[in-house]
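README: folding subset

This subset contains proteins for which both the sequence and a predicted structure token string are available. Records are stored as plain text. Below is the entry for Universal stress protein (244 residues), shown exactly as it appears on disk.
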Amino acid sequence: GAAPGVQAARTAVEERVSREARAHPELRIRGEALTGSPEDVLSRWSSPDTLVVVGGASVSRSRLRRRMPIGERLATRSCRAVAVIPADWDPAEGVGGGIVVGVDGTRSSHAALRFGEHEAERDRVGVAAVHVWTEPYVWDQIYVPADELREIVRTQHRDLLEDAVVEASDETPDVPVERRAVAGHPYFALVRESAGARMLVVGSHSHGSLVRRLLGSVSATLVAMAPLPVVVVHPTAPVSAVLS
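--- output ---
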């Protein structure tokens, strides 16, 4: 027979599945209790068109972790979309809210925007496409007035955001998309712009420290510390299949 720990896990899974099936009879829910490292097992049991959903730590305890959380580990090694739900998140906080997508002009953020728009179409909500940029430094050697230079940079970033939205919206033309080009630190700006949203969607790509090079420093920080569900989308994830 199964070891006591495995049997206890199976019983717990069966009880949870039964409880969730009663609460959501419109859904098909099944459960499995498996052995192995969570990221290995979840990667093996999910196909490329699967949305993998895992729980995260509470925001209040996220700074105390020493080990990379499972959501971040999955996102760094998976070509799937991975959703991380904070332990202390209240679903009621996102009721009536839309979907926020971080856009930086990369292939990964394009995939994230497509994902967000498909999800918004299914949930009948809007999307806020947020592009965060840093105010330029102004040197004496540049013969352009500071205000004029900043306006030039702002226009370039607004154009980048507009191009990204137009390209990503061809499959979901009826989804309302609000464009927000804001200056600031990407993590803090995205968290601020996501207040009241049901989820934040970001791309997975290299940009940052060596440890987080496979996910991206901003996406990694959001997965670990954001106060709302964060979906990390790999550029090769088949969005339409995931959301069908």
